[in-house]
Design brief:
Blueprint (H helix, E strand, L loop, with lengths): L4 H7 L9 H20 L5 H4 L3 H30 L16 H21 L1 H4 L9 H24 L6 H20 L9 H25 L7
Length: about 220
């Protein structure tokens, strides 16, 4: 969440829908997905299982805030797509050809593992290099699927100027995950293939964000 925040501030400066949908669509996936996972495992919430009053109140607030934000995100999307479509903005800075296979593999990897964790958490939880229960596995699946949607969405947009908010979010997410992995290093099975895959995928987010930002800073490509 902390890693996504810089990109969300960039949404307010966008002029057209094409410039923000690579971040807004994954945002909707996260909010709706986490709300659904919370309701699916409602019996395990502090509010249902009982506990210290602070944790119970936080549990209720978590569900309430997620629910409100999920409804707002869906309402914004419905309103956006019900509006008469304008001619799409011109693509000013197409993605370099060499980057497209990289983005396709990176986006497919995140979307694939995320979908697997959501649909079959018992099986796919073994691909997480630390111990997770079913709710945690599905929550991680939501984030994985959302990252896949964002990366593949950037590939579909094929324009660096349309992905600037998302480019701000990618390095932040990668660095936040790296900090958590560093702090909890003793709980990670670093010798597993899952750990190597995760490190590679997180590094891919960092590289994609940094390289994309540097390319977009050069300005639009010269027009013929």
């Amino acid at each position: 969440m902390a890693g996504v925040a810089p990109g969300l501030f960039g949404v307010g400066r966008a002029r057209v829908w094409e410039e923000v949908r690579t971040l807004v669509l994954p945002l909707a996936v996260v909010l709706v997905g986490l709300f659904a996972v919370s309701l699916l495992h409602a019996g395990g919430l502090q509010a249902a299982a009982g506990g210290p009053v602070v944790l119970v109140l936080f549990s209720l607030g978590w569900v309430a805030v997620l629910g409100v934000l999920a409804v707002c995100a869906l309402a914004a999307l419905v309103r956006q797509y019900l509006k008469p479509a304008r001619p799409p903005a011109a693509r000013l800075a197409p993605l370099p050809g060499w980057s497209k296979p990289f983005l396709a593999v990176l986006g497919s990897a995140w979307f694939g593992i995320g979908t697997g964790l959501l649909v079959e958490p018992r099986f796919w939880a073994d691909f997480v290099p630390w111990a997770v229960n079913r709710p945690d596995a599905q929550a991680l699946g939501v984030w994985g699927a959302a990252l896949g949607v964002g990366v593949l969405g950037a590939l579909a947009e094929d324009d660096l100027t349309r992905t600037r908010p998302a480019l701000l979010a990618l390095p932040g997410i990668a660095l936040a995950v790296a900090v958590v992995l560093g702090v909890r290093a003793s709980e990670v099975d670093w010798s597993s293939g899952a750990a190597l895959s995760l490190v590679t995928m997180v590094a891919g987010l960092l590289v994609a964000g940094i390289v994309g930002h540097r390319l977009s800073a050069r300005g639009p490509a010269p027009r013929p």
